[in-house]
Amino acid sequence: MTIFRLVEILSSNRDLKELIQQEETMLSQVKYSDLPSYGLGMQQGIQQGVKQGMQQGIQQGVKQGMQQGIQQGEALTLLKLLELKFGPPTDAAREHIHTSDADTLLIYLERILTAETLADVLTPTNNPN
Question: Where do the structural domains in the chain lie, given as residue ranges?
Answer without folding.
Answer: 59-129
